[in-house]
Specification:
Blueprint lengths: L13 H12 L7 E4 L5 H6 L2 E4 L5 H6 L2 E2 L8 H16 L1
Parallel strand pairs: 1-2, 2-3
């Protein structure tokens, strides 16, 4: 899927780090999918082109998300998201 950067565990200023990665790699924010569950993910939700919350995310995170998964974090959420992306790619071709 081309994932090059994964950050976030224990990080408080995720928005700053995300902006730095986007600038360093010359990536447009609109091309980023960000998945989160906690309040410190909200700044990245505002930056990313598509924000995704896991099913057991904080209510504020769920409200802010563009899409909410049916799986909890650590219990198949990433797989669910990957299948959604792959299915959409297949349907678009």
């Amino acid at each position: 899927m081309g994932v090059e950067s994964i950050h976030g565990i224990g990080m408080q200023d995720k928005g700053r780090v995300m902006r730095e990665i986007l600038e360093k790699k010359n990536i447009k924010a609109e091309n980023v999918i960000y998945i989160g569950n906690d309040l410190n993910d909200l700044p990245c939700f505002e930056i990313a082109g598509w924000s995704v919350a896991v099913a057991d995310a904080y209510p504020e995170v769920i409200r802010a998300a563009d899409f909410v998964l049916t799986k909890n974090g650590g219990h198949g959420a990433i797989r669910e998201l990957c299948e959604i992306i792959l299915n959409r790619r297949q349907n678009d071709s």
